[in-house]
Design goal:
Helices cover about 45% and strands about 25% of the residues. By secondary structure, it is an alpha/beta fold.
Length: about 140
């Protein structure tokens, strides 16, 4: 078995998470600059077998607020599918992930300045996306 990669894409930063090879435990990876994240994923896939890539996608029923974000996210997803045709790229609803990540960070006792760390928030969101997805398998 290979790992499952979880992605919380953002215009500036992208949070990443990954399962263990048995696809049971989810751990956060470093948050990457979004301009460099694709190269990071390609290099990671050379070192570790990936069975699937799960991308957080805000399934919004009404109009998107930030059209530029949607265009960048859709292009990122298409680039993943083109670069890894043998690996399924699955979209998972992430509408409340950032709010849930903030709440979790507060519940575990992180100080206010730690909760303001956007990289930690993005990484925590990526973990939640992948954990929620695994609960649906």
């Amino acid at each position: 078995m290979g790992r499952i990669l979880g992605i919380d894409f953002g215009l500036k930063r992208t949070g990443l998470s990954v399962t263990d090879p048995e696809q049971i435990i989810v751990q956060g990876m470093d948050t990457q600059d979004s301009a460099l994240v694709f190269e990071f994923i390609i290099n990671y896939a050379k070192r570790e077998k990936l069975d699937e890539i799960v991308v957080g996608y805000p399934f919004i029923e009404s109009a998107w607020g930030d059209r530029r974000f949607k265009e960048k996210l859709d292009q990122f997803i298409q680039d993943l599918k083109n670069s890894f045709p043998e690996i399924p790229v699955t979209l998972h609803d992430e509408r409340n992930t950032s709010m849930d990540a903030r709440q979790l960070m507060s519940q575990i006792g992180l100080k206010k300045h730690q909760r303001r760390d956007k990289a930690l928030l993005d990484r925590t969101s990526a973990i939640l996306i992948l954990q929620e997805y695994l609960g649906h398998i």
